[in-house]
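This entry is retained here.
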Amino acid sequence: MPAGHEQDGAAHAPTVPLLHMQMPDRGHLMWYSGLAAAAVFGVVDWPVVALIGAGSWVAEHYAKAAQHPTGDRQAQH
């Protein structure tokens, strides 16, 4: 068998793409950890925690998008 053909099977194996996510900064990590702890200890129900977490995430990303307008918007002004 020629050199290099031994690894062809591994090269053709299906791969699962990795999620390219950043770890949240310390403040956000503490916020989401606190939400999870509140749910674990029964202070708040899980559906409420899920809504608060999702709302926080959406609000944060909306605020970031508003702070960094795209080049098209700047060209129109």
Helices lie at 8-11, 26-40, 46-67, 71-76.
